[in-house]
Amino acid sequence: MSIARQAATLPLPPGRTGLPWIGETLSFLLDPDFATKRRQEHGAIFRTHIIGRPTVVMSGAAANKFILSTHFDKFSWRDGWPDNFKELLGASLFLQEGVEHQRNRRLLMPAFHGKALTNYVSTMNEITDRYLAKWSQTGNLTWFPELKNLTFEIASVLLIGSEPGAETIELSRLFTELTNGLFTIPLNWSYTTYGRAVAARDVLLAHIEKVVLERQQAPTQDALGLLVQSQDEEGNRLSVAELKVQALLLLFAGHETTTSLVSSLCLALARHPEILATTRAEQVQIGLDAPITIDSLKQMTYLDRVLREVERMYPPVGGGFRGVTEEFEFNGYRVPKGWQVLYRIPEAHYDAEIYPEPDTFDPDRFAPERYEYKPSDYNFATYGGGSRICIGMAFAQMELKIIAAKLLRHYSWELLPNQNLTLDPIPTLHPRDGLKVKFEKLDMSA
Fold this sequence. Notes:
Layout: H1 3-8, H2 25-30, H3 34-42, E1 45-50, E2 53-59, H4 61-70, E3 75-76, H5 77-80, H6 83-89, H7 98-108, H8 115-138, E4 140-142, H9 143-160, H10 166-180, H11 193-217, H12 223-229, H13 240-253, H14 256-271, H15 273-286, H16 294-298, H17 301-313, E5 319-324, E6 328-330, E7 333-335, E8 340-344, H18 346-349, H19 393-410, E9 411-415, E10 423-424, E11 430-431, E12 436-441
Parallel strand pairs: 2-8
Antiparallel strand pairs: 1-2, 3-5, 4-12, 5-8, 6-7, 9-12, 10-11
C-alpha cells in the first residue's frame, strides 16, 4: 500500500465541529481555556471548526517542531490566518511566502540587527526616562495602557521617525482600535469593533504614506528610512504600496507583544519580591548611574534569566495559524489538505517533562548549569521558530531589557487592591483590569 493511500485510511483527529457555520468560534474567542480543555479531553491533537474553517489544534514541542521546521513545506502562512488579519494588516511580510517573503525579509533585516540596534539604544533610553518620570509624578495609575503608549512611541520614533507628542499618542490609540478588530466578527459597519478597526487602519495608512513619500525625498536612519533605501540583488526597491503595508506591520509587531511582555514582567516581579530584590541587586552592582549601552546590557545576566522566564510563562500570543497545503499525518491521525492548523505555544512552555514545576516562576531554570531551554527541540516558541522566527526579536528583547533595567534602578511599583489580575489572551496577553499600581521613584540613598 502506498504511503498516500495508507495515510488516507487513518482517522481524523478526535473532536467536534460545533454549531453549523460558526462551529466553536464563540467558545474559542470567549473562553481563554478553550484549547486547554480540549487538550485535556482529546490529547495533543484535536479537531474543531473555528473562524469559518475546519481546524486542527496541535500542541507541544513535537507539534511546534513539525509545523515550524521539519514539515514547514506542508503549510501556508497566507492561507492560515483569518481574513481579519489579511484585511487589517495587508499583504505584508507577515502574510507573504516563498521567494517574495525571502526577498522582503532580507530587505527588512538591516533595520533590526547590528549597527541599527546600536543606534536605537539612546532613543530607547530617552523615551523610557521621560515616561518613567511622568509615571512617578502621577503616583497611582492603570499601567497597561501607559506601557502601550511607551512601547508604541519607541516603535513609532525608531521605525518610522515620528515626532513624540500628541500625534504619537493618537497613532497609538488608532493601533489599539486596529488590534481590537483582529479577533472579532468581521462586520464592517461604523459602529462595530471591526468597522472601527478598518477606519483606524485607513487613517494609519494615510499617515504612513505621507511619511514614506517624505523618506523617499529625504532618507533618514530610522527603520523606514533604511527600508526606503534598501534594494534587492537586481536593484529593485519596494513600491510605495509595499512600503506602507510593511511599515504598518513594523509598528504592529514593534509594540503590541512588547507591551504584553513588559506588563507581565512587572506583574511577576511585584508578586515575587525576592526575585525583584535579586534582579535589582544586579543593577546596583553594575552601577545605578552607569550608562545603559549595548555592552552594559550584556552584563545583565540574571535579568536575562528573568526575562526568559517571563517569555516562557507569559507568551503574548497563544500560537499561530497555518493553512494545510498538503495532507499529513501526525500522532496517527490524518489532517486533510485545505484545513487550517493552529499550533499552541503555552503547552510546550508548561510541559513538566521539559520544565519541572512549570507553574513556578523560576528564572534559575535558565541558569547555565540547568538551562532547560533547547532551541532545537522547539520547547520554547514565544517568538516562533525556524526560518520565519520573529524578525524583530532582537529589537524587542533589547527594548525589554532597557525598560526593565531603568525600572529596577530607580523606581518601585506596588499592586493596588481590588483589581482583577486575570490575564486575557486576546488580542495579546494582558491584565484584565489594566494593571493598577502605585508607582514611585526610589530613594537609593536611604
